[in-house]
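HUMAN: Please help interpret these tokens:
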Amino acid sequence: MNIEIRPQNKTERFFRKFHNKLEDILFSIVQKVPEPLIPDFVMNWVESYIDKRTRKLKEDIIRQKWQQIHLENAAGKIHGKQDKKKAP
């Protein structure tokens, strides 16, 4: 497993936070508007966006599980090497 730690770009972080806040505001507005008043194209967009986000979150969960397994294996190997050094 190859993990690279990079410093975060401040502008990238700002736009990511801005995008997330904008999403939250948009969904809160859509939730408060009665469904009959929402145009079809907006409902289709929201549905496709939710599907895309759901897929992304499922992928992230799987990726995190694999990372956890790799880290647990690495920790097990480290503990195994330490046990071998203490044994004699």
About this structure: The helical segments are 10-32, 40-86. The chain has a mean pLDDT of 84.
